[in-house]
Amino acid sequence: MKSSKDLLTDRFGRTVTSLRISLTNRCNLDCIYCHSEGDEGTRNEMTVEMIAQIVDTASKFGVNKVKFSGGEPLVRTDFEDILKALPELKDVSVTTNGVLLKGRAHDLKEAGLDRVNVSLDTLDPDKYAYITHGRPEDLYEVLEGIKAAIDAGLTPVKINMVLLKGINENEIDDMLDFVRGYSGDLVLQIIQVMDFRDGAQYDLDAKKIEEDLERRADDIRMRKMHHRKSYIINGAEVEFVRPIENAEFCANCNRLRITADGKLKPCLLVNDNLIDFTNAKQEELPELLRASIERRIPFYTDSEEKRIIEKKTIIGDRKDGS
Ligand SMILES: Nc1nc2c(ncn2[C@@H]2O[C@H](COP(=O)(O)OP(=O)(O)OP(=O)(O)O)[C@@H](O)[C@H]2O)c(=O)[nH]1
Ligand SMILES: C[S@@+](CC[C@H](N)C(=O)[O-])C[C@H]1O[C@@H](n2cnc3c(N)ncnc32)[C@H](O)[C@@H]1O
Ligand code: SF4
Ligand code: SF4
């Protein structure tokens, strides 16, 4: 009989303690680089009950964190019901574009949400509209949403800034000032753009930018998840997410993904090894979780042997179909 820890530990020694659940593929914006969590699936969406069942099962095997994402999770009007149906967990968070956050922040907190990440790549309304294919005014909705989240206690609020060559690479200091202005309630999270949609053309030398931040930092911390580092610069905290060609990042990946239509997805970048659990009985879920954990492979790795295995499993699934 396996212990609960073994059940969710993969053959590379990575124990899954966190679920990243996509609630929908729908979105009210259309960002130029969007990876949609590697999920281009159907418009079918898990019910509240399905989500509660899979989280409940995973929680019995050591999962204590859940991140909701999408698509845009707040387009689901039953998000509060989903939160209320969850078992007790250490950390329940959502990543949102923030456009619909203002009117929901208090209800989400009441329903059990602990904190929120808000995507905001620029403070310039015209650039915002260019990046999101939205309206310049949407930026003000997002800023109001951030304030509402702080008022509701959904803190720390992380501001997700995807670094985009030629668009926002010169805005890092403005963003640090913005975060500093909310003394501790906001954390900046800078993200290296991944090659989805038009992402490749905006790619820049993220490692060099991170090294610059490191030089300026008064203090440096490292997270268990992905061994991401965060830098304290003159009172502002900035975490750096650098997932590309980063073996250390993948070696410390402790998340299992769930697609909006109810499939266990071992890795963001691999699409041919998903396991559908929508027709499973509750008692079958542990075995499906185990099977999914067995399919987990670090996408980037220093080991040539693992790289060969992993490369064979990858299929292209980008928005342009290539
Ligand atoms: N390649 C890869 N990228 C990830 C993974 N987890 C998160 N990301 C990326 O990290 C960025 C930030 O994601 P968020 O949804 O804000 O969540 P997070 O920062 O990972 O989670 P918290 O810090 O716990 O709030 C996004 O661009 C995600 O696609 C992962 O396991 N693999
Ligand atoms: C896919 S979005 C879904 C949640 C929500 N709609 C939002 O935008 O916050 C989750 C996070 O992934 C980031 N993201 C999307 N495409 C990306 C890419 N190609 N490279 C890096 N991060 C990306 C977004 O900026 C956002 O912070
Ligand atoms: S708001 Fe989020 S899901 Fe929507 S297009 Fe932008 S990154 Fe993608
Ligand atoms: S293995 Fe690497 S690329 Fe895949 S989900 Fe984990 S951190 Fe992301």
Automatic annotation (TrEMBL):
<keyword id="KW-0456">Lyase</keyword>
<dbReference type="GO" id="GO:0046872">
    <property type="term" value="F:metal ion binding"/>
</dbReference>
<dbReference type="InterPro" id="IPR040064">
    <property type="entry name" value="MoaA-like"/>
</dbReference>
<comment type="function">
    <text>Catalyzes the cyclization of GTP to (8S)-3',8-cyclo-7,8-dihydroguanosine 5'-triphosphate.</text>
</comment>
<dbReference type="InterPro" id="IPR010505">
    <property type="entry name" value="MoaA_twitch"/>
</dbReference>
<feature type="domain" description="Radical SAM core">
    <location>
        <begin position="11"/>
        <end position="236"/>
    </location>
</feature>
<dbReference type="Pfam" id="PF04055">
    <property type="entry name" value="Radical_SAM"/>
</dbReference>
<dbReference type="InterPro" id="IPR013485">
    <property type="entry name" value="MoaA_arc"/>
</dbReference>
<dbReference type="GO" id="GO:0061799">
    <property type="term" value="F:cyclic pyranopterin monophosphate synthase activity"/>
</dbReference>
<feature type="binding site">
    <location>
        <begin position="255"/>
        <end position="257"/>
    </location>
    <ligand>
        <name>GTP</name>
    </ligand>
</feature>
<feature type="binding site">
    <location>
        <position position="67"/>
    </location>
    <ligand>
        <name>GTP</name>
    </ligand>
</feature>
<keyword id="KW-0004">4Fe-4S</keyword>
<feature type="binding site">
    <location>
        <position position="33"/>
    </location>
    <ligand>
        <name>S-adenosyl-L-methionine</name>
    </ligand>
</feature>
<feature type="binding site">
    <location>
        <position position="71"/>
    </location>
    <ligand>
        <name>S-adenosyl-L-methionine</name>
    </ligand>
</feature>
<dbReference type="GO" id="GO:0061798">
    <property type="term" value="F:GTP 3',8'-cyclase activity"/>
</dbReference>
<feature type="binding site">
    <location>
        <position position="95"/>
    </location>
    <ligand>
        <name>GTP</name>
    </ligand>
</feature>
<dbReference type="Pfam" id="PF06463">
    <property type="entry name" value="Mob_synth_C"/>
</dbReference>
<keyword id="KW-0408">Iron</keyword>
<comment type="similarity">
    <text>Belongs to the radical SAM superfamily. MoaA family.</text>
</comment>
<feature type="binding site">
    <location>
        <position position="119"/>
    </location>
    <ligand>
        <name>S-adenosyl-L-methionine</name>
    </ligand>
</feature>
<feature type="binding site">
    <location>
        <position position="20"/>
    </location>
    <ligand>
        <name>GTP</name>
    </ligand>
</feature>
<feature type="binding site">
    <location>
        <position position="250"/>
    </location>
    <ligand>
        <name>[4Fe-4S] cluster 2</name>
    </ligand>
</feature>
<keyword id="KW-0501">Molybdenum cofactor biosynthesis</keyword>
<keyword id="KW-0949">S-adenosyl-L-methionine</keyword>
<keyword id="KW-0547">Nucleotide-binding</keyword>
<protein>
    <recommendedName>
        <fullName>Probable GTP 3',8-cyclase</fullName>
        <ecNumber>4.1.99.22</ecNumber>
    </recommendedName>
</protein>
<feature type="binding site">
    <location>
        <position position="31"/>
    </location>
    <ligand>
        <name>[4Fe-4S] cluster 1</name>
    </ligand>
</feature>
<dbReference type="InterPro" id="IPR058240">
    <property type="entry name" value="rSAM_sf"/>
</dbReference>
<feature type="binding site">
    <location>
        <position position="158"/>
    </location>
    <ligand>
        <name>GTP</name>
    </ligand>
</feature>
<feature type="binding site">
    <location>
        <position position="253"/>
    </location>
    <ligand>
        <name>[4Fe-4S] cluster 2</name>
    </ligand>
</feature>
<feature type="binding site">
    <location>
        <position position="267"/>
    </location>
    <ligand>
        <name>[4Fe-4S] cluster 2</name>
    </ligand>
</feature>
<keyword id="KW-0411">Iron-sulfur</keyword>
<dbReference type="GO" id="GO:0006777">
    <property type="term" value="P:Mo-molybdopterin cofactor biosynthetic process"/>
</dbReference>
<keyword id="KW-0342">GTP-binding</keyword>
<keyword id="KW-0479">Metal-binding</keyword>
<dbReference type="InterPro" id="IPR013785">
    <property type="entry name" value="Aldolase_TIM"/>
</dbReference>
<feature type="binding site">
    <location>
        <position position="27"/>
    </location>
    <ligand>
        <name>[4Fe-4S] cluster 1</name>
    </ligand>
</feature>
<dbReference type="GO" id="GO:0051539">
    <property type="term" value="F:4 iron, 4 sulfur cluster binding"/>
</dbReference>
<dbReference type="InterPro" id="IPR000385">
    <property type="entry name" value="MoaA_NifB_PqqE_Fe-S-bd_CS"/>
</dbReference>
<dbReference type="InterPro" id="IPR007197">
    <property type="entry name" value="rSAM"/>
</dbReference>
<comment type="pathway">
    <text>Cofactor biosynthesis; molybdopterin biosynthesis.</text>
</comment>
<dbReference type="GO" id="GO:0005525">
    <property type="term" value="F:GTP binding"/>
</dbReference>
